[in-house]
Specification:
4 helices, single chain, alpha+beta
């Protein structure tokens, strides 16, 4: 199984499958979109998958193992931006602890 992003470039997937089958001599390859795999993993036939990454957020709807192209979109807002907004809000509200993202302990705390 080759997991591919919900929003993918067809030529990249074709190249990866060719690499697996020809160069690495795999017997078979099955490209599967991440959102479809998440739906199978949850055991639900229908779902709306929201993937909040570090730099971007992807939303897609899956029905009967088909990720509908019209329902997929990507926002250029991710966990790092949400963390930065949280830090600014805590400073603005006068929270007694002032986290420093450059500190390892504070970085781990903010990413929990």
């Amino acid at each position: 199984i080759l997991l591919i992003p919900s929003v993918y470039n067809r030529s990249h997937v074709k190249h990866l499958v060719n690499l697996l089958l020809v160069n690495l001599r795999f017997q078979a390859a099955f490209p599967l979109q991440e959102d479809v795999a998440a739906t199978f993993g949850s055991g639900s036939p229908v779902s709306c998958v929201v993937d909040i990454g570090h730099e971007k957020t992807t939303v897609s709807c899956v029905e009967d193992a088909i990720s509908h192209p019209s329902s997929r979109f990507t926002l250029q807002i991710g966990g790092s931006l949400i963390r930065d907004v949280f830090i600014q809000l805590s400073r603005f509200q006068g929270f007694p602890y002032n986290p420093d993202p450059s500190s390892l302990q504070d970085f781990v705390l903010l990413n929990q």
